[in-house]
């Protein structure tokens, strides 16, 4: 039974800032670690959040704040979702009940929130580059403080982290890399480097050659040797030690001094390791072995499940509440996407699915179980994922890349240079397209704009579950070039928990014409000699607009179009509407205004559209304004950005009145 | 004297395809290498192109085609500009005079041109990802051929190449990586990995421990040892050999079998190395040491200068023609940008400049000479460059990133996530913004669209040299957030060879208001009660439009505005123009139509603009259509895309007539 009872928090209560840690005994620090763990589990049971990674980094965080002095010393937390303990120790403990709530504590680090947060971080693998930049700045400005990058073994698979380590090895700046190695990023970790680090831990391979040398030396004691021979033997030992007697030889060869591996849950050992490198001027990496979910048995047993959790009840037994809901949950778009892939894979033997370490979040792990041989989790390597898919497509496979909108930004060049130029049939499942609760770093609001500027691309978004299924089916079966299908992090419209999709005659996927739009509801107007306004809604906004129109009381009703393809536009339908006399168009999309779907319609109206009509039709784009969007519940953020059904209704009424 | 006389080409003449290479003796291959070198120098002296890298890879290419069989075996040429020899050997020799000419031979590889080109490549570091994808496809499709990635030591610094090697080490696919190591990318190479590989070559460090062991063994012969001790010594030697007796230990540890280093100009040795790994099923890396510019003395001496060369005359002495022009050349925008940086750096001690391996192309090498301590060439690491700059800005420096438009695509996420969210004052000099002769992979046409969709960004483009200088000065002095200044690869308007800029009272940089547009020429109209059309020209198109308007014969003349800021728009001027009754606007930009400057004006007119006027102003965007642009002279490509002065004039006249 993983229940949690009220425990004392005497040590934690005494902490007002990092300074107090410096006075505490190691034993007390270890007790404090226990209290912090308890508080994290208890707190996240109410708010949800990144549980396992924060349980794993308690002692490392305590040791960092014990040995170093923030905010003078700068700690760069890679990804930032591992910084809850850091937040607790730097004056934010009493706000934990607001974690990830609108206007509450951010789920990541951000200097806006505290001077102890040296930078913002939501995406992986940025910390070493930031540290190198800050170390150069420190030296240039003749300052004297430590710059520390805390990165996980998962973050280390990201190309830019490797670029930064390579550069750091070259310029030899005073940077400390703290490698928090728990053998997994979000999913299980991938890569030669991960295997290598695993080998370090398992075998400590360097020991046996040292033992062998010692043994020879012992035996030689028994025979008579000249001084010269002894010198040589010592020299060999010295060289062996210098060059090979380190498990971190790869890092050493790249110019980063390595120490470890060290038990990352032994506060004393971690403090000592940091003390030992604290005053070194050359770059250092300290390799700490931790256990994700440490100290909370369900999370230790399944840290993937407990990576990010919704709020949960602690009693009765957690697992029942977190995982085994008594009744099945409504399907999300991610679920529908994965199921569609699994279904079409049956008769498409060359379909393969690729994910850059988001197999769980995207639900694609289910595909991996169904087709392990056709499933590729490449770790946090968005660039490699996309270009590898391009190579696969060129060589005759049908690759599908499942990727979050915000992470696809990392592979923009690969999308253009490797996929689009050769017009390769790679299907992109762009998950989390739109607003998400995670805040500025994770908003999926740019994909419509940047994907539609790439020649050869088809950019789709479904109005509901059945359409997503059919888009996936059609894209896999028929597409001759790259296709992106974007969908939000939300329950899928029309999907029931039992896997049926409303509005479809059968549950079989169908070939559709996804680049043709459909008129869902013809409008009515009372204005003489005029045609109703036309609403062109894209993806998630189709159903939202439908709901908005239901609240309408006026006799005036606009025509509602499911504009499911932002590229190409359905210019045939647009042309018809123009010829038919429609002169007011409203576009609605869950993406940035700048360069988005609205801009696409405006561009067309101002060029090809101008050949059709002499009039100048009005086009009013409704989209996300030009600013970063904070964290908070999706419903709040949609409303804040004018995309709730209420705000949409108000805006449409205003347009119609004009 | 580096003159070139006509030489026999009997071996080269006999080659109709790779098959013939398999019959030739090694001696004849070496002779063929000489003929190919001669032909490359001779041919590039007429067309220009990538000289040094192709001279360096002659023997490797011969050996590849000797041992492997394209197009069945797939060779992925990283970057692709090193593939001239490959092109000569695969049926394209007789088209070399058209190299990089419009409708001529591409300067890179592309399957559109030959089945022997397995993929397209123009950007660096993609080959291993492609190879991994193609190897997975091969195995899945039960095919049987070799997949080979040919990558330089420069390409290996790119994060995505490291991502791919890491993944390859994990999945252990049959891929051969040919590492063409000439110790430089375009500029001199940077990074711990480069230093490591250099050490491999210089010291072959593993040898001395082996020698020491041998020596001990020899000495021990002289004393009496038991059999058990001998066994131990042999075991130590075996372990030392297995584990350490390889210079490629870093690759080995990542799971890639290493062989080398091998002299890459010894055809026989290279052929043998390829034969040795040909039938291995695990991933292999063969490390070949080459000399860029091999066989052509001026290029060997200065391979950076000869990286990419314009057409040159072979007699008299090359160096005079290529480099020491009798009179100074007109300054390019790159020159002006670098000079502006050097000038402002004088009284801005915290200004630092960063380049991802394009110091020569961008002219920034001159800044590096003036301020070596403030100059950072991070190798081919666009992502790291941008995030490092973000760290620098946060820590108090004034970083300026000089980067080509096409390569900035690689750092899109870093621009958003690391620079823009915190609104950090990083200045981007976006070089090669617009059309370039290099073709699809290098066109800098997307930056306006993707940068302007990022909140907090200012996106500028100067109309001439003096304005570029003033923009740089103002951005460095005054900007509080990220600023991008884009300029084309072209002679700078108004710059003379002696460094004076026309149109400015003095040659001192001035603070300007770069986000305010300026009316350059007021228009005239003969239409009663109407206002002239307004042309909003951006960056390079300001002068082009000015020239177009000069050819106008009609009495009707539009107003010409230098719309130097695409973000923010000068909404104050736009509002004035609307209130003043102007109702026709033409935007002109050297960027993609989708989401570009025209879209920005359309968006504003359809939202804020609608609050100002009851009318519906016409906005006609002139921009690059939605397709990839091939290679050819810039003037040709501009005309092809409607952006020559003739095409602009025609288009404007058409609009005015409507």
Task: Please tell me about this protein's structure.
- Two copies of one chain form a homodimer.
- Chain A is built from 27 helices and 17 strands.
- Chain A folds into four domains: 10-203 and 248-309, Thiamin diphosphate (ThDP)-binding fold, Pyr/PP domains (Rossmann fold, 3-Layer(aba) Sandwich); 204-244; 333-486, 3-Layer(aba) Sandwich (Rossmann fold); 518-657, Rossmann fold (3-Layer(aba) Sandwich).
- In chain A, helix 6 packs parallel to helix 7 and helix 17 packs parallel to helix 19.
- In chain A, the strands form three sheets. In chain A, strands 7-6-8-9-11-10-15 form a seven-stranded mixed beta sheet, with helices on both faces. In chain A, strands 1-2-3-5-4 form a five-stranded parallel beta sheet, sandwiched between helices. In chain A, strands 12-14-13-16-17 form a five-stranded mixed beta sheet, sandwiched between helices.
- In chain A, 41% of the residues lie in helices and 13% in strands.
- By secondary structure, the first copy, chain A, is of the alpha/beta class.
- Chains A and B meet through helix 6, helix 7, helix 8, helix 9 and helix 10 of A and helix 6, helix 7, helix 8, helix 9 and helix 10 of B.
Poorly predicted spans of chain A? 201-208, 315-325
Please count the helical segments of chain A: 27
Question: From the helix content, strand content and strand pairing of chain A, which structural class follows?
Answer: alpha/beta
Number of E-type strands of chain A: 17
Helical content of chain A stands at: 40-55%
Number of domains of chain A: 4
Distance between the termini of chain A: 64 Å
CATH topology of the largest domain in chain A: Rossmann fold
CATH class placement of the largest domain in chain A: Alpha Beta
Beta-sheet strand percentage of chain A?
5-15%
CATH architecture of the largest domain in chain A: 3-Layer(aba) Sandwich
Mean pLDDT of chain A: 86
Oligomer: homodimer
